[in-house]
C-alpha cells in the first residue's frame, strides 16, 4: 500500500472513531453528495441488479438477512467484545484489521485480483495467546511512525507527539523538543524533525514490517483459527 494512502486511512480512523450516529449520517450523506457531483457512482452491473432483486424478494418473502451475514456480524462483535475484556482500546479492532491488510500475507494473497478474498482470523484464542495483541501493537506503531513522518517537518504539538511515541523514542527518531517562549499559549513545547528524522523513521518502519508479516502469518497458523470474509 502506498505510504501516503496508509497515512490517510490512519488519519481518517482517528478522526471518525468517536463520531455519534448523527455525525455518521451526515458523513455518509456528504459522501453521497460528492459521488453524485463528480459522477463517481459506477452503473450497476447485471450481477448487482440480480443481487438487489434477490434481496428484495428475500425481504418480501420474510426471509430477512442471510444467516451467513448475521453469523459474520456476530463473530466480529464477539471478537471485539473479547478485545475489550482483555483490556484493548476501542479502536484496536480497526488496527487488527489494518495490520492484516497491510501485511505481506494479504498482499501475496490478493495480488491475483479477481475472485480472491482474504478471510480474517477471528478466533478468541488469538486474543488469549497474545497473537492478536501483537498485530495490533505493531499496526499502531506503524501508524504512529507514518504520522510522525508526515508531521515532523512542520513541527508537532508536544502532547500530540508524545501520544505517538514516548520522549526517548522521539529523540531516537531524530526529533528535537523546542520550548516555546513569550505568552502563556506560546510556551507549549513542540517536537520538530531534524535532518536525520526522515531516514530514522523509514529505518524503523522497515524494521517493523517483517515483524508484522510474521505476526500476521502466525494468526493463520493457529490451529483454532476461524476465518470470515469481511
Provide a brief overview of the structure.
With 230 residues, this protein is mainly α. It has eleven helices and five strands.
Which descriptors would you attach to this protein?
11 helices; 7% strand; 230 residues; mainly alpha; two-stranded antiparallel ribbon; three-stranded antiparallel sheet
What this model shows, in words?
The protein has 230 residues and is mainly α. It folds into two domains: 1-64, no CATH class; 65-229, no CATH class. The protein is built from eleven helices and five strands, in the order ααααααβααβααββαβ. The radius of gyration is 22 Å and the shape is globular. The chain starts with a helix and ends with a strand. The relative contact order is 0.12. The mean pLDDT is 81.
List the helices and strands and how they pair.
Blueprint lengths: L2 H14 L4 H17 L8 H15 L6 H19 L6 H10 L2 H7 L8 E3 L3 H4 L2 H21 L4 E2 H7 L2 H6 L2 E4 L11 E4 L3 H25 L5 E3 L1
Antiparallel strand pairs: 1-5, 2-4, 3-4
Number of domains: 2
- Structural category is mainly alpha
Percent in helix: 55-70%
Radius of gyration: 22 Å
Uncertain segments of ≥5 residues (pLDDT<50)? none
- Biggest sheet character: 3 strands, antiparallel
Q: What spatial order of strands do you see in the largest sheet?
A: 2-4-3
**Structure summary, number of beta strands:** 5
How would you spell out the order of helices and strands? HHHHHHEHHEHHEEHE
Q: Which strand-content bin applies to the residues?
A: 5-15%
Q: Quote the distance from N terminus to C terminus.
A: 19 Å
Using the alpha-carbon principal axes, give the shape: globular
Count of alpha/pi helices: 11
